[in-house]
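Comment thread on ticket #2218

A.B. wrote:
> Attaching the input chain for the structure job we discussed in standup.
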Amino acid sequence: MHQLRLDPEAFRKERDVVLEERRLRIVDQPVAAFGERFNAVSYPVSAYRQPVIGWSEDLHGLDIDDLRDWYRRWYSPANATLVVVGDVEPEAVFALAREYFGPVPGGEEPQPPVDRHMDAPGERRLTASDDRVRVPHLSMAYEVPSAATAKDMADVYALEVLAGVLDGGDGARLAQRLVRDQSVAAGIGAGYSPVARLDTRFSIQATPTPDTSPEALEAAVREQVAALRREPVDAQTLERAQNQILADHLYGLDSMFYQAMRIGRLEVTGIGWSWLKGFEAGIRGVTAADVQRVARTYLTDDRLAVGVLRPGGGNGDTDEEAE
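C.D. wrote:
> Ran it. Output below, let me know if you need it in another format.
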């Protein structure tokens, strides 16, 4: 956290390691490379449109002074959260923290960049083709609030349950209707994670069956979303989603590592660890009307980004358009 020796030669070697990691994990993986581009489209102004590992141009342009400035600004006790979980004596933990972190200069708490938010920016589309791709891939993402940005926390719990209605085992709506009943998707999933500092996404990822076009699959997904807006889910579907969410949540808390990670993420995103205490009641309190309400509010075309990755047509040829 201080007194780090930054050697120019070691910096150059480590930068090459990161560039190679980026090549292996993203550049050489067509779906991952497409996902990175899709992030930039689905987050039109948010800082989340930037990849954590950095664009290749950014990495090539870094020098050791950039690293020193970054280290001085962000690596300090003023910007750190220490999380300890388990069967420990609190006073002993505090004593150890004072012993090992006390001598470290506190520094000034850095302020993250102000979020540049754009309400309902309009439907955006990204299409790409890649010779390395064997089957098409469909991504759909709606801009939604996180637990840090939501004006009403009830929306956050309802979005969690909405994701559980669509995805969460073989009985979930997308798998039941689009994979087994209609046979238009070979695989499909939906997800929403409310633990973020800025607005986040409600995402649907899908692979069409061999005799289904990406456009037909997209239309089928849109129909399932429209059905959620038209009518409330039934009591059995609602309860199944709630039970699955809470089971995953409680089983996760059996892990000391998961507890520490969850608490730390809640703290650094500004949500606060105490959110965990109300999570079960919040999920149980979601009604079918709540699920319908957030579907009508947030799963709308003006919040939607659609991405299609197709086989062939060149290595990563991309066309972006806004609607």
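A.B. wrote:
> Thanks. Noting for the ticket: Residues 316-323 have pLDDT under 50 and may be disordered.
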